Amino acid sequence: VNVTGFKARVEGAIILVSVLGSATITLMHNNVSSEARNRILIQAAADKAVATNRDVFLKYLNTRWREISLV
């Protein structure tokens, strides 16, 4: 499953993307299939595959969802 973006939220909002099923979810980096304000920016500047039982945190900053590390 490819995800190109999430609906824009308020500045500073954080969401957790958890993969609980058997499929891999790919977060698409800055993909033009989503409106600019809904796009995802991945730290590596490339699409990110998220496997089963894995999580990714995203924070809404400066009109984009940005991958963040909590470590």
Give the count of helical stretches. Answer: 0
Q: What is the distance, rounded to the nearest whole angstrom, between the alpha carbons of the first and last residues?
A: 27 Å
Strand proportion: 35-45%
Helix-strand category: mainly beta
How is the main sheet built? 4 strands, mixed
Q: Tell the overall outline.
A: globular
Mean pLDDT: 95
Q: Total strand count, please?
A: 7
Low-confidence stretches: none
What strand line-up does the widest sheet have?
2-6-7-4
Order of helices and strands: EEEEEEE
Share of residues in helices: under 10%
Radius of gyration: 11 Å
Task: Give a description of the structure.
The structure is a single chain. By secondary structure, the chain is mainly β. A 4-stranded mixed sheet has the order 2-6-7-4, with no helix packed on it. Strands 1-3-5 form a 3-stranded mixed sheet, with no helix packed on it. The radius of gyration is 11 Å and the shape is globular. 0% of the residues lie in helices and 38% in strands. The termini are far apart. Strand 6 and strand 7 form a beta hairpin.
Question: Which helices and strands, and how do they pair?
Answer:
Blueprint: E1 2-3, E2 14-18, E3 25-27, E4 40-41, E5 48-50, E6 55-61, E7 64-68
Parallel strand pairs: 1-3, 4-7
Antiparallel strand pairs: 2-6, 3-5, 6-7
